[in-house]
Amino acid sequence: MEQLLLHLRNLGFTEMESKIMVELATKGQASGYEVAKQLGVSRSNVYAALQRLTQQGYVRCGEGEPARYSVLNPEELATMISGRVQASLAYMESEMPRGGPVSPSFYNVEGDRNVLGALVRQLNLARQEIVVDVWREEASLLRNELEQAEMRGVRLLWAFDGGNAATAPYPAWPPLGGELPRSGGRKFSFVIDRCWCMLGMRYEDGTAQAVVTEHPVLVELLLNHFTQEMVLFELEEDMGTELTKRYGERYSRIYSKYVLHDQNGEESEEPDEQAAGQLRPEDDAD
């Protein structure tokens, strides 16, 4: 019931109107007095809401004394709401002032639902290219949108980070002071059409945080990181035996030259091994 009321409110109905519509749908038809008594609210508020709903066509008022009201069946209601929403969206899109140029800004997005929602909206707007650096768990949540983008002709470039392949780890940069960073999260980044990007972290408890921007500096950084990751992967795939023969165990420690030391003067532990590859969603996004 609460979910239904929430979605009715999302469609533009007030809380009172939503409750009245659900009550009428449950009873089939009822007088204003009966609805007010069932909901435990004043009759004046109920009659005012019923008048609005009747004028808008969502509720019908029958003849008789007292008048009895009924709501449209779900199919009629959905068709009417959909038509009006689409008409309003089309008008807004064509008539909304576009204004002048806006300087790129950085926006914080909090919460798993908000992060995924922002990604879904932007993926659906992609026209040319999507660059994805993500763990398989997060890729699977967006599989439908990514497949739809590919069907539209959008170019997809993938780097999956699953921590389960024998490639050289990236250096760990321990904090210089203060509390240790929150652990248990999975980093991800998306660059869409080389002008919009999101960089964030999703945690095991279902929470998520991300930064969204169209600033060219961060877009360029993420694209460069992706390129370096893919080039390294390709080199290791093509020259793995030669690299091992030439460098031996030292190859796996090359990154350690660039790892900062913690306050005790000790090197941080090496992170989990990383795997990067250019894959299609149907290969590994299950």
From TrEMBL:
The record's annotation in InterPro entries points to: ArsR-like_HTH, TrmB-like, Tscrpt_reg_TrmB_N, WH-like_DNA-bd_sf, WH_DNA-bd_sf
Pfam families, A to Z: TrmB
Q: Which CDD domains match?
A: HTH_ARSR, PLDc_like_TrmB_middle
Which keywords does UniProt give here?
DNA-binding
Q: List the residue ranges of the region (Disordered).
A: 262-286
Q: Give the Gene3D superfamilies listed for this entry.
A: Winged helix-like DNA-binding domain superfamily/Winged helix DNA-binding domain
Database matches in SUPFAM superfamilies: Winged helix' DNA-binding domain
Per UniProt, residues of the Transcription regulator TrmB N-terminal domain are 8-75
Establish whether keyword S-adenosyl-L-methionine is in the entry: no
Q: What is this protein called in UniProt?
A: Transcriptional regulator
**GO function terms (MF aspect):** DNA binding
Which species is this UniProt entry from?
A: Paenibacillus jilunlii
